[in-house]
Amino acid sequence: MARDLTDGIWPLPGDKGLTGLFQDRVAASRDAVAYRQFDHCSAAWRDHSWQDIADRVTHVRAALHSEGLNSGDRVAIALPNGIDWVAVDLAALSLGMVVVPLYLHDSPAGMTFILKHSGARLVVVDTAARWQSLLPQRADLTELAHVWIRDELDAKNATSVQPRVATMAEALGRANRSPSSSPTDADALATIVYTSGTTGRPKGVMLSQRALLLNAMAGAKVIPPRPDDVFLSCLPLAHAFERTVGYYLPMLGGSTVVYARSIELLAEDLRQQRPTVFLGVPRLYERACAAIRSKAQHNWLKRGLLTFTARAGWEDFEAGHGRAQKLGSVKRRLWSILDRSVGMQVRAAFGGRVRVAVTGGAPLPVDVSRFLIGLGLPLVEGYGLTEAGPVVASNSVDDNLPGSVGRPLEGVEVRISQKGELMVRSPSMMLGYWQAVATTADAIDQQGWLHTGDLAEIEDGRVFIRGRLKELIVLSTGEKLVPTEVEARILRNPLFENVLVIGDGRPFLAAVLTLKNEHWAALARAEGIPVEEPSHDNARAEVLRILEKELEDLARHAHVRAVHLTLEPWTIANGLLTPTLKAKRGPVQEKFATEIAALYSQDPRARMVARE
Predict the structure, then answer these.
(1) Shortest CA distance to 64 belongs to which of 86, 98, 88?
(2) Which part of the chain has CATH 3.30.300.30?
(3) Domain 18-207, what fold?
(4) Cβ neighbours of residue 449 under 8 Å, at least 6 residues apart?
(5) pLDDT per residue over 78-87, tens digit each?
(6) Mean pLDDT of 420-438
(7) pTM of the full predicted structure?
(8) Which part of the chain is CATH 3.40.50.980?
């Protein structure tokens, strides 16, 4: 039976970092289920106990030692979420090595940059095809000495001498006895996590084991993990949010982590595995919200019942937090009846027993929070950034105010600068940026305050994020606005998949939008517009009318006056989205530079006539 180590049972002595936590977890919960993942060979889910994982870590540790790798050497991981990722991470950390996580959806050029910049000595990849994609840039990887490929390796792909290429099974098979355990320095560099921001080259954030562990322990006081909890992991472990909250935090509670098979199969995995804790990014919840609404949009009765249930549920939630009056007896009785049908269906889609759903990585539109919370999903929003280790603030189920990102975690200090920027100081902060002293000095001032780059306000101890400082749009007319609010309102409409609002230094706002194929096809047929011409003049005029309605309660300067429409998807793989599904402003603007220029070269008065 797993035991909870979060209530003072597990202390944090001098050098007892993540590896110490893992050792104590194995001792306390040896036979309990640590992880569950899908075995494609047997086409079935397989449980792995804490002792199973400990044995695997010991084996990987021996293989790392046999390769001649030393403390301080960088070990890069390009694997899907699963027990191999965990085993390589824990084994490397136990030997004082530095883990460099890679996103599987990153481009070969992006992976090569990180491998070269970090000076990785070993990279563990999932497939031979992954390594093959990096071969054209192999000459740049002068520090890379070893490549492990998890899946079977064709003989033709194993002929490389420098670096030495082998399957992971071969590397484990030739390993000598694991070196004796020795304490690692919890304050030494443990990992370099490369940021995946919306602008510029990724920067290598240096974090210690202590920073990650203290952040997980502080988070556990807001969202306490339980031995009977089941976490469903679907966000990449390369992302600091998933790594800390979906990997180290459940280890504190002895919880079970289930690794989702894929985003495409996520809905099925939720129903099958029935998690009690679920971590997602706003886009996942936005899509869930849009899917629920779309099922009822063509039936006025279903639409009305859904709206009533969500609104009444929201009012009950607000009353429970002391911010509204309790529901009247008649309304409560009707809501109770509808919640058992309408609300229960929504909760069943998430597995039916989620006790907390967490969102982070980007702002979540308040209307999405209210809608899902009103239907009974216990959704809380948090905020963080990799440089802060990563979580800074979070709501809890019992103290939840949608629209805010909650209160700072224990030990975290926050303040607002004169220009409105959120400043953070905490024991979980980064050691600095890898090989970037000047950039580090720009990010952390002499008093130890981290400049987050986020515009924020603090009210009654709660943090409210208003947007990115660098993304603040200043129109040529002098008006200022944060584009994220405009973009969030636009994405409420099921017609749009992605949006980027631009206008800095311009007289008005414009937007590049990708359309959802099925919704666009229906609109095109209704308006007599060729489906293959999304940027047809009539299509743009119709979209501008839709946007006018979505943005009607915003100031006039926050209205979009020109659009470019496309059916081409924005993905992580083509470099237009970050791993948390945020649009990369620079790459999107670069890709559509000609189209954006055309929007501003045309006479805006002609568009206004078309819109009206």
Answers:
(1) 88
(2) 473-611
(3) Rossmann fold (3.40.50)
(4) 415, 423, 424, 425
(5) 999 999 999 9
(6) 96
(7) 0.84
(8) 18-207
